[in-house]
Amino acid sequence: MLTISIVSHRQIALVENLLADLRKHCRDEALELVLTLNLPEDLPFGEHEYPFPLKIIRNPSPLGFGENHNQAFRQAGGDFFCVLNPDIRIRENLFSPLIEVLEKDRGIGLAAPQATDPEGGIEDSARFFPTPLEILGKAFGRSSRRYPGTGAVSFPDWVAGMFMLFRSPVFRQVGGFDTRYFLYYEDVDLCARLQIQGYRIALCRDITVVHDARRASRRNFKYLRWHVASMLRFFMSPAYREVRKRRQGMLDAR
Known about the structure:
By secondary structure, this protein is α/β, with parallel strands linked by helices. The chain has a single domain (2-253), classed as Spore Coat Polysaccharide Biosynthesis Protein SpsA, Chain A, CATH 3.90.550.10. It has 8 helices and 11 strands. It has helices spanning 12-25, 65-73, 95-104, 132-139, 168-173, 186-196, 221-235, 238-253, and strands at residues 2-8, 31-37, 54-58, 80-84, 88-89, 108-116, 126-127, 153-154, 158-159, 163-167, 200-211. The strands form 3 sheets. The protein has a 5-stranded mixed sheet, with helices on both faces. Strands 5, 6, 8 and 11 form a 4-stranded mixed sheet that branches. The termini are far apart.
C-alpha cells in the first residue's frame, strides 16, 4: 500500500483538484491519504467521498514543511510514502511505474517524476547541490547550474519536495525530514542524507506531473527570511560538509 501526505495552507481548492485527479487516475491503486490542515479551513468535501481512506489532521498551530510530513508518516500504514504538494496535478497513474523503479533497484532511495508547468515546459525540479559561491552569483544575476540529466532515469543530487516517493523503511531509516528547517531546503538536506546512507536519487523523466506553482511567497519578506535561514543552516550542516567532501574526492580521483 501507498501512503500519500498532502499539507494544505488554506489551499483546499487546490487539494480538491488533486484529490479529483487521484480518484480519476488512481482508483485501482492501493493507497491511503493523510491530509494535514496546517491552518484552519473548512472542507468542501466529505472524508468518505473517495475510493481511498482519507485521514484528516487539523493542526492547533502551524508546523513547518518537514514536521507536517513527519507527523503524517507516523500515521502511515503504507509500504511506500509519498510527499505531494497541493499544487500538483496528475494526468495518469504514475505511482505504479515509480514504485517499480524503487523495487527494481534497491539502491534508489527516492524516486520523483519530471515536473512541467501547465503549458508543458520542463521545470527545474532536479538540481546539483548548491554551493555558497553559486548562491552569491545568483544574487548578482548569474544563472545557476542546470541539471543536464538525460535518459529515462537520471540521478541528480536532489529533487524538489513537491513530489517525493520513498520506500517507507528508507524514509524511516534516515529519520524523515529535519524539522529544524521550518521551510525551504528540507528536500535538499534529506537528499544529502540519503546519499550519505548510500542511496541514489532517481528522476524519472518519462513520468510527468504538472506543477501549477503559486509564487506569492516570493514577494513576502517573511518567506525570504526563512529561505536565507534555511540556506545557511544547510551550508553549515554535517550533511553538506560530507557530500561536498565526497564530491571533491570524486574530482580528485579523476
